[in-house]
Design goal:
Layout (H helix, E strand, L loop, with lengths): L1 E3 L6 E5 L4 E3 L5 E2 L13 E5 L4 E3 L2 E4 L14 E5 L4 E3 L2 E4 L9 E5 L4 E3 L2 E4 L9 E5 L4 E3 L2 E5 L9 E5 L4 E3 L4 E2 L9 E5 L4 E3 L4 E2 L9 E3 L6 E3 L15 E3 L6 E4 L6 E3 L8 E4 L9 E3 L2 E4 L2 E6 L12 E3 L11
Parallel strand pairs: 1-3, 2-5, 3-6, 4-7, 5-8, 6-9, 7-10, 8-11, 9-12, 10-13, 11-14, 12-15, 13-16, 14-17, 15-18, 17-20, 18-21, 19-22, 20-23, 21-24, 23-25, 24-26, 25-27, 26-28, 27-31, 28-32
Antiparallel strand pairs: 29-30, 30-31
Length: 323
Amino acid sequence: MVLVGTTSGDTLVFTVSDENIYGDTETFLPSPFNTAIRGGNDRINVTGNNNAIWGDALFFREGIDGTGGRGGNDTIRISGSGNEVFADAQFSFLSSKSGNDRVIVFGSGNRAQGDGCFAYDTSRSGDDIVIATGNNNTLTGDNFVGMFDQTVAGDDRLRITGDNGTLLGDSAQLEDSAVGGDDRLRLIGRRGRLFGDAAFMRDAAQGGDDVLIGGRSRDLLVGDALEMSADNQGGNDRMRGNGGADTFVIGEFAGTERILDFRSGEDKIGLIGGLRFTQLELRGNRIRYQGSVLAILSGVDATTLNRGDFRTVAPLDGIGDLL
């Protein structure tokens, strides 16, 4: 069964499982036959398991006048497990623009996106707030699988209260000339994975200036991405582990990462892209490579660090299960 609202701004309340729920339409916004329309500012409350919820539609595209579809500013509240939320549309094309949404999730094993799944062309994401309480949840600020072409991410706020959570500020993949947003990620729990922008950045994609705050122990904090190339431009991020054997990732093509609470002998600096400890220059509170500052360690004399404070992080280390 498919449950569908209208573009007028609906309040939808369901207690269901294994259903598809759309805030505005189950196909295109706008439709192929109309000028561009905006999705309604919907309130969607769903209790149940294994549902798929779209705040607006399955596709954003352009209307016959060339104007891109617009997502509404939706509030989506989910209770249950195994649910997936696309706060706007699963696929965004052309000059479409997602809304500024708020998603609140209770339960375990859910996946929630502030916008959708795929973004192409010159589509723009919204500035979203995505919050989850429970274990094994995955939150993405913009589009979970990938942002391509000349898409631009929003400035999002993500927070998980629970263990084994994954937070992606923008997407799993930023490719072509996609631009990441300036996001804030917070974990209140253990064994989290926090990616300020994405797991992978390719082509000429750019990262944003993000803030990452870890939980109680054993978190992986990645300001930009685990895999980057010379054409990428990383952001200048701020990372705080908040205690307990965390790994802070730095790399040649990432921006300058400010690490606020590194503890030698407990935490690790993760090296990506083939970077090795012997290639680093440790001076003052800075870690340099070929003249570029990779990291600034607040309150730490970098010259006291040794090989044991570093480890290599592979591109799929801790992320291969997501795609």
